[in-house]
From TrEMBL:
Keyword Hydrolase appears in the UniProt entry: yes
Source species: Sphaerotilus sulfidivorans
Name of the featured protein: Alpha-D-ribose 1-methylphosphonate 5-triphosphate diphosphatase
Domain Amidohydrolase: 235-393
Record bears the keyword Hydrolase: yes
GO molecular function terms noted in the UniProt entry: hydrolase activity
Lineage: Bacteria, Pseudomonadati, Pseudomonadota, Betaproteobacteria, Burkholderiales
């Protein structure tokens, strides 16, 4: 590493660099939004930023978060202006160390009552305006969650087709009794509490036919074919969602899916591993020790060796915390330096590669200068600084 700073350069020094295969005390030089080089040891250059022995990680990559939805509708039936919702979401994402985020947008609601059954495309104009002004903290991309039984799903998809932010599509069915909600006791609790359904309404929905020959089944099959064709035409990565059986995974693989997100059983996760799909688990599930819907604990996927990546799902701060948990020898010990690179790869390099982003996800010369400063306090990671493209954003 050269012994002086060129104009526009930054040097972060005195950091525990979490590299692809090791943790090394060293320094990183940044220029024009990229990592120029890496060196062992501490640099004593004028203007170098001393990280005082804190960890320096690659910026986290989030493939599936409903966090914007939480800001857009913080209470049932209470919708906030898109401008304030996007800014609040962006700030929270960056503060969690996430530098690349795929905002999950629900496309369709089978019952046309919820937020996901409405046109949310105003978000595109807001993101573009904030980006053009240079004030977005994270790199925002879009993950469109295509609700197959919804009769308005294709209509709601139209504003996003061909938009440069679109990078991921997933196929899903959230009707009670299906996939994630196969456990009817938990499904009843969820739909009658969060969704506000009556017990009678839930019983009527369960009694409705959902099979291939039913009206809803035919609609779901037609939408599935249309969305798969769109993903291929647009060159967008495709994910399955809440796979419950090996047959679900086989179907997704045959359709061209490369990501199996939130499999609900160990059977489905193992089949995804056999077929080479990236298996994405929920960070909140891992930290809590169980699924809120009664599905397979992510810890079981870890133990079986079939967890490839993590998503914060609905709580951004859980992404880093879950990676830290993976790196521990036990809950009582601090992050294990020998295991930390493998754990951090599940929230950076692995998700980035799964959607074709090869310019980020690790600390290496030539890659984007997306970096996170982390200090461990009482065994827990605390984000102290975030750089995206070499610019401090949090």
């Amino acid at each position: 590493m050269q012994d002086s700073l060129m104009q526009g350069e930054k040097v972060l020094t005195g950091a525990r660099l979490v590299l692809a295969d090791q943790v090394m005390l060293g320094s990183v030089r940044l220029r024009d939004g990229r990592i120029v080089d890496i060196d062992a040891g501490r640099m004593r250059l004028p203007g170098a930023i001393d990280l005082e022995g804190d960890h320096l990680l690659p910026g986290l990559v989030e493939l599936h978060t409903d966090n914007h939805e939480r800001h857009a509708m913080p209470r049932p039936g209470v919708q906030q202006p898109t401008w304030s919702a996007v800014q609040a979401h962006d700030a929270e994402i960056a503060a969690a160390g996430i530098t690349t985020v795929f905002d999950a947008i629900g496309i369709g609601d089978p019952y046309r009552r919820g937020f996901r059954g409405r046109d949310q495309s105003e978000m595109l104009a807001v993101l573009d305006a904030l980006d053009e002004a240079g004030v977005l903290r994270a790199d925002h991309r879009l993950h469109l969650r295509c609700e197959l039984p919804a009769d308005n799903a294709l209509e709601l998809f139209e504003p996003y087709a061909g938009h440069p932010r679109l990078g991921l599509m997933s196929l899903m069915d959230h009707t009670p009794g299906q996939r994630q909600w196969s456990d009817l006791v938990r499904a009843r609790l969820y739909f009658t509490s969060k969704k506000g359904w009556s017990g009678q309404q839930f019983d009527q929905e369960i009694a409705r036919p959902h099979g291939p020959g039913s009206e809803r089944g035919r609609r779901a099959e037609a939408n599935r074919g249309a969305f798969v064709a769109l993903a291929r035409a647009l060159g967008v990565a495709l994910a399955s969602h809440d796979d419950t059986t090996a047959a679900h995974v086989d179907e997704a693989h045959a359709l061209g899916a490369s990501i199996c997100e939130f499999p609900t059983t160990l059977e489905a996760a193992r089949r995804a591993a056999d077929l080479g799909l990236l298996t994405l688990g929920g960070a909140p599930n891992l930290l809590r020790g169980h699924s809120h819907a009664g599905n397979v604990p992510v810890a079981a996927l870890v133990e079986a060796g079939v967890l490839d990546a993590l998503s914060s799902d609905y709580v951004p701060a859980t992404l880093l915390a879950a990676a830290w948990t993976l790196a521990r020898c036990s809950l009582a010990q601090p992050a294990d330096a020998a295991r930390l690179p493998q754990a951090i790869a599940k929230v950076s390099r692995a998700p980035a590669r799964a959607v074709g982003l090869h310019d980020r996800g690790e600390i290496a010369p030539g890659l984007r200068a997306d970096l996170v400063r982390v200090r461990e306090v009482a065994g827990q990671p605390v984000v102290l600084g975030v750089w995206r493209g070499g610019r401090r954003v949090a």
